[in-house]
Amino acid sequence: MEKGAIKVVSTFLAAVQKGDNATVAASLHPNIEWSQPGSNRFSGPKKSSTEVFQMVGGMLEVSAGTLALTDVKVTAANGNTVACVVHWKAVKPTGVVLDVDNIDVYTVENGQIVKAKVYSADLAQEDDFWLN
């Protein structure tokens, strides 16, 4: 079970890094439950892959297309749940920088991610970057 879950999540994260939206979409269950941390315009629950794509589209707009998953540092599994330490970077046209680690916890069922909970190592930095 762990190997299958890690494969799904690793494929998803590699697709995010490459900008392979077709693979990203195929990796996410249409009714995924996504929890985004913080107190900014992108924070809170998302209840579908459509809402997740809308959130990411907004993040790319705010970051002038610079938002990038630059590193996947750790991937660990327990059953069908996979935790990852990932690193994100972005720079706004104003020069404001986002440079933060997150811990993402994914639940995989039937070859798709059905739940994602994101934890930020620096919520203040994320809230300041994404503003409201």
TrEMBL record:
Domain SnoaL-like: 10-115
InterPro entries membership: NTF2-like_dom_sf, SnoaL-like
Pfam families for the chain: SnoaL_2 (PF12680)
Listed name of the protein: Nuclear transport factor 2 family protein
Domain of life according to the entry: Bacteria
